[in-house]
Hints:
A: five-stranded antiparallel β-sheet
Amino acid sequence: MKLEVAARLxxxxxxxxxxxxRCEAQTVGIVGPSGSGKSTLLxxxxxxxxxxxxxxxxxxxxxxxxxxxxxxxxxxxxLLFPHLDVRSNLLFSPRAGPLGxxxxxxxxxxxxxxxxxxxxxxxxxxxxxxxxxxxxxxxLLLDEPFAGLDEARRREAMSLLASLRERFRLxxxxxxxxxxxxxxxxxxxxxxxxxxxxxxxxSASVLRAGETRIxxxxxxxxxxxxxxxxxxIELAAxxxxxxxxxxxxxxxxxxxxxxxxxxHAISARNCFEAVVRSLTDAEEMVIVEIxxxxxxxxxxxxxxxELALSPGSPVIVIAKATAFAHVGAA
Amino acid sequence: MxxxxxSLTVGxxxxxxxxxxxxxxxxxxxxxxSRVRHAVxxxxxxxxxxxxxxxxxxxxxxxxxxxxxxxxxxxxxxxVAFHWLGAVIAAAVVGFPLFVLMIALAIKAVDPRFExxxxxxxxxxWRTFWRVTLPLTWPGILAxxxxxxxxxxxxxxxxxxxxxxxxxxxQTIPLQIYAELDAPGGERRIVGLVLTACAFCLxxxxxxRILDSxxxxxxxxxx
Lengths: 330, 223
């Protein structure tokens, strides 16, 4: 997706949003502290706040009102229509076709006849996401979609989003006040402060010092006892006993070790060769992106110097089996 | 028609007739950011604070049989002043502020983001009103209708000025009670009328309460 945004608007309380950026990425992150204008920017992109210029893939969406913009908008409160059951919520959009495999992909196929008040918070968010996907949006906007979830549930939900993005080829804009939470998913990001863009670029470049809890989301197939094949590499992973078929895994970037040579005797169960795809400077650290499988590792600039890594250079990737957490079925 | 029947038909017709306008006004007050909104709100609320006799006098000026509007309506077979329709209009105008207030409260209770989500899913604002706003507010609208009906039922000042006290046509329960005060044997009839009026109003208020708590549950406001 090629995205061009120029949002300028004033709020009666004195808040001014003046944010312009241009990027080409499948998933864009908007990060910044509370009150920095993230949600206002998302409202401007959606067309809820009029007067901003938004161009998606060369198409100027600015003159179109919200109901003709074709954007899926999912907020932290799922906002399921309380008078309609789950099925009617999912089919609410006039653009929605048959349910197809969307409910199964989100694990809500058994909830279709329930009313929203009988769903848990996590279930509601999944239904809201499914409803947005079924409306066949050109762009999916997610405003802190998984805020308030505990760490395990957040990883589960984010990895689900990563697999949905691939499955339904959905460009997304994700908003969060915690940069490291969404960097795992976004390739490109904007950092907002007091209504202004203070940094924009490859997502890792907007990270702050200490923000190292970056996640990797992978999808693979169980091929044996605690073994999962991901992009042609067989990984030892902490998958639940009895799991089979396709599974989603999550792995923190900080749990990945990079080396120039294969170690001889080591307890870590994963050790394979990969290629450095890119290097991004984040404050006091460097994010090394490797392929394949596509993973991000976080290292210090000193370590990077010692390893003499650059894009295209081979590298040995080392990780414990427990670094790859089984977060759900794919 | 006796006064109880007149009161009931006047109350029902005035409530039904003012319903669409009351919904439109409540939506305008709650869902727009227009600068003249406050001026409109003040105007709508006027009949609530004006002495009903003053409201009746102003209505009589507007619908006077010698005025252009009154004459046109009379020509169309719908005379207002000193006719049944006058009682309907008096009840509608006096009950209107409460009706709008109640509906506005019901609309306020619905998170406007539901309407935004609906539009983001490709549903036009007009269809969003029918598919989201109305289904979520109709118990509140009915509660408002019950209160407006009860208010119209008790209307006296504006009715007697605009519609007069014509037995069988415009003499509602309050007007008959007034007439019976110095009529021989009126006391006994007054007791019956007072009990009837009390019963109607009690039912309306109870209905309004039940509907109100039902729609709050529906919107999960009381969870």
